[in-house]
Every structure is written in structure tokens, then in C-alpha cells.
Amino acid sequence: MKEKLTIVKVGGKIVENDAALDRLIRDFSQIPGYKVLIHGGGRTATDVAAQLGVETKMVGGRRITDAEMLRVVTMVYAGLVNKNVVAQLEAAGVCALGLTGADMDVIRSHRRPAGEVDYGFVGDVDRVDGERLAQLIHGGIVPVMVPLTHDGKGCMLNTNADTIAGETAKALAGFFDVTLIYCFEFAGVLGDPQDEGSVIPRIDRPFFDKLVEEGIVSGGMIPKLENCLAAVEAGVGRIIITRADLLNADLEHGAGTVIA
Amino acid sequence: MKEKLTIVKVGGKIVENDAALDRLIRDFSQIPGYKVLIHGGGRTATDVAAQLGVETKMVGGRRITDAEMLRVVTMVYAGLVNKNVVAQLEAAGVCALGLTGADMDVIRSHRRPAGEVDYGFVGDVDRVDGERLAQLIHGGIVPVMVPLTHDGKGCMLNTNADTIAGETAKALAGFFDVTLIYCFEFAGVLGDPQDEGSVIPRIDRPFFDKLVEEGIVSGGMIPKLENCLAAVEAGVGRIIITRADLLNADLEHGAGTVIA
Lengths: 260, 260
What we know:
2 copies of one chain form a homodimer.
Chain A: E1 4-10, H1 12-15, H2 18-30, E2 34-39, H3 42-51, E3 57-59, E4 62-64, H4 67-91, E5 96-99, E6 107-111, E7 123-128, H5 130-138, E8 142-145, E9 148-150, E10 156-158, H6 161-172, E11 177-183, E12 202-203, H7 205-213, H8 221-233, E13 238-242, E14 257-259
Parallel strand pairs in A: 1-2, 1-11, 2-8, 5-8, 11-13, 12-14
Antiparallel strand pairs in A: 3-4, 6-7, 9-10, 13-14
Helix pairs in contact in A: 3-4, 5-6, 6-8
């Protein structure tokens, strides 16, 4: 019987707002047992870039990371935002360790080849060193990871935080019974986008196919859920989609969508 | 017989210059056995601060760290400069882990009380967790530390890099036979400030007293050497003052000043 590990991914919105961060620190520090936090920091990056005169270019909701923007996200994610989160977690009694993929080579990626769009210094993950992370976690350390990886040749690469969360969960599934919690703006996957109370409690592969067929799940939610189902099929115990302020609610029984 | 550990402290000048950094990475990666790197990043911090419209205030050569400057040094030291160094070391085959004092609570400090000068968010070190660092180092990890600590209450603090190097060396002296190398602009302590060839090969307490008495050592060099002697008296094996490009020279036999 593997020990439990909880991986929580929160977006920039949470860690960049003092009140929301306070709440996250309190809730996250109360999660029992082994855990990992993965956070973004995109708004601060956009703000700092603007102050530095670096233009933020987005294509289809994704950031184009040129050399100047890579400097900005490296500063903001790994420095400003991460160290604030780490210091707050330490104050709450959590033994937190800030990590990029370059640190101890925990996440190696390669630069995405330019296709129709050249995203610049953006990395697609090749492998996560689950063994190294598991060692740290077993040693009582809580990794606090930012969406940056490296190519093994000295270059940092900007990497999607949801992807980092999913790949890390898969790599750690060999060592722990992993629950991956994606915090987003709703309490879960909604059956009716107009009704926040219509959270679907549980989705498995057959039910997902039905939801897509019926058009209840559509657009960007399809690849998101596809990735979740693939992670579960790769050994992750369960994935929960919920709101950050529900982290300590009864997530498996109504306070979020469980994908398993 | 304790195993050997080499701690190298380099200033911003080295890690902020591409050619000097390349050389440092090559030389540092060739140091055999356990090691730690401590680096600054002050010039980049000053540059980024200027770009962000944050004024750099110095009193007696020391930076005043107001709230805005604390954001800048946190971004630059822990983010931009550290992750570049870590990624380069990884490319050279070193298992590097970037650390501030907040990470795993490795260096706790308190904000320096305002005296004649209020240095702002500057920390004086209370304790270094040598046991945690020794565990990492025995696990094959090379800590790459930046001059930032935390107060244990959620606040990061800017902290002198020489002090971090000295305190870390003392904390690790219980676990290893420690050699601490301070890289600076000359090949060692000079007997004649006009003659770069006049490196004093070895200084102990009685010889230091004589050098001070004769006026050969004066000014800012006196507290620097006092700190070195105190570290040696606290168990650090030896401290070597040299130039970064001499790291792989025969430091104990003429290519630097050994304080022991």
C-alpha cells in the first residue's frame, strides 16, 4: 500500500493576491502527509515586463517567450513569486523548497520547434526525475515548483504549469498514491456553464465520452480533461478539479470534480 | 577523518559576465568531491532596479534595501542570476540546487535594527541548518546559494554574501573538513597594494596581529580577515583568498592567501 501524496496546482491569480495567498498557505499547510505545490505567476510577469518595457505577446492565450521575456519569467516565477510563497509556507511550519526544473535536473525539456507559431523559449517536458523528488519528499521536504524547466544545455525554458503538474504527478505515481488537485475558477467541471452549483462530481473515461458527445464538455475543457484521464491511466490515483478556497473541503464527495 | 568540502564564494562580477561565468562553471565543476557555491548578483540588481525606476541607495558601500529593492534583489538573485548559474552547472554535469535561506529554512536571520543607518530589509544571520545542508551534500547535491535569508515570519531579507559564506562554512565544519574560498579581485592578500605579485601565502592569528601593527593590512581588510580568523577558530579547516580564475591553481602553495 503506497503512502498518500497530494499535489496542488494553483494559478497566478491565487499566489499573486495577498488575501488569496494567505488562505492558500493556511489551507495547504493543513493538508496532512506528503505534498507538493505548483504555482504560476503570469500576472506579475506581465506587470514586471511592462515596467521593464518588454512587450507581452500572446497567441491563443499562450505567452510568446522571447529572450527578454525568458529573463522576466525566470526572475518573477523563480525569484519574486516563488520565494514569497516559500517564506510564507516556512512561517506556517512547512519545510518548503522552491524548485525549477533546472534544480537537480528534476525536469528536463526541449525547446518546442517553431511550427505555425514560434513560442520562443518554451519547453516541452521530456522527463521528470520522480526518484529524486520522492527522496526529497520522503525526507520531509515539500517541493514548491514553478513553471520553468531547462534543456540540459544551460538554457531555461518556460513551461506550462498544468503540464508540469501532470507530468510530476505521473512521475511520482510509482512512489506514492497520488492525488493531483487542479485549482481553477469554478468548484469543478460544470454540467451547466451558467450554474456554478452544477458541479459534476465524478468523471471517468466512458462518462467523459458521453459528456463530449452531448456537448456538455467542449472547447478548451476537452484537452484539459483528456490530459487528466491520460494521467489517471498512467497511474495517478485521482485528479480533482476545484477552487483553491475549497482545498480542505470534502473534495471526493461533492466539493469538486473527481477524475478517476 | 572528515571528508573534504569546498565552499566557493564569488561576487556578482563573475556570475554576471558571460566569459567569466563560463570559466567559473568549468573550474568549479572540476573541483573534486563535495562542494557549495555562493554567488552575488549586485550589478544586475542595480541595473534591473534602474530599469524599474527603483533608486539604488548605498551608504558606505552597502545597499539600502527598502521594500521595492527587496523585490528586485529577490527577483534578480534567486531568479535571474541563480537559475542561469544552476542551468549552466547542470549542463556541466553538476547536480546543482539553487537555495535562499528561506528554502527548507536553511538560513534564519532577523532584520537588523535601525541604528544610525536603517539598512531596511537586511538580515543578520541567526543560524544555518548545517545538518540539512550536510544531508543534501551527502546525497550528491551541490547547493548554489544566494545572499537572501528569511526571518521565519514570512519576510525575505537581503544578507551579505561573505557573511552567508562564513556562517555556512562554520555550520558545515561539524560535518566536513571545510575549505572556504573567497574569490575577489586580487590573487590574495597583498603585502604591497601596488604589487599584484606580493601575495602573502599564509596568515595565522599572530601574523595577522603583526601585519595590522605594521600597517600592511588596514581599512576594510581588517574586519574581513578578522572574520576569516574567527571562522577558522570556529572549526573551518582553512580559508583561501584568491581570484576566481585561479580556482584550480595550487591554492595552498602560492596561488592565494591561506588563512588557517
